[in-house]
Amino acid sequence: xxxxxxxxxxxxxxxxxxxxxxxxxxxxxxxxxxxxxxxxxxxxxxxxxxxxxxxxxxxxxxxxxxxxxxxxxxxxxxxxxxxxxxxxxxxxxxxxxxxxxxxxxxxxxxxxxxxxxxxxxxxxxxxxxxxxxxxxxxxxxxxxxxxxxxxxxxxxxxxxxxxxxxxxxxxxxxxxxxxxxxxxxxxxxxxxxxxxxxxxxxxxxxxxxxxxxxxxxxxxxxxxxxxxxxxxxxxxxxxxxxxxxxxxxxxxxxxxxxxxxxxxxxxxxx
Length: 270
Description:
Oligomer: single chain
Radius of gyration: 18 Å
CATH architecture: Sandwich
Distance between the termini: 44 Å
Shape: globular
CATH topology: Jelly Rolls
CATH class: Mainly Beta
Structural class: alpha+beta
Largest sheet: 6 strands, antiparallel
């Protein structure tokens, strides 16, 4: 989708199709700067603990807690307004991680990012996910695969575990319906938290690096307990908007207070 479409048009596209792709959002210099921030954490030492995380996939969680530079993407002016258009103001950052898929990785199980919320599907969006391509996404290197329109599917039965989500056998063949997001480095895909998707298998001889930044409605619990990762001392280095996204904010009238006061006071006292 053309990046010159309005925020309202992009949000409408996500509501209808489940996703949009914005191209050329990051320059080569910006991509290299993000990769430089990630380099100390990507040493091929820590891989996933199961097939969902990926046996040959490195993940770096709570990025804004490692370096304030990652906050620039969390509040990117071409992305955050779309999430706010869908979810409203005072939204929260619910997941903020790097995903580095190594050669030989198998496909991730199909899932929806909001699958652990016990809300019957389909429903109004309560979360918005983004995938930032720091490398080109191809058919061969583990490019994210999506099922367009699947955010509108009925899902009245829930698995006991988030990682046990399955697509019911009602003539829907995910392998046939899936499409790979073919994106150049610097692009970002923005999609509904209800959209079924997965990381693809990497049949190439190189890694495929991306950032997954997800937002949720302000009344939901975040996937990552970011305020434990982003201490008040660390939050001082973040912009005021990123602090709010992390959770140093209040959803009216008083959801999120700390001993009766606004959580930003923790930063002021640190």
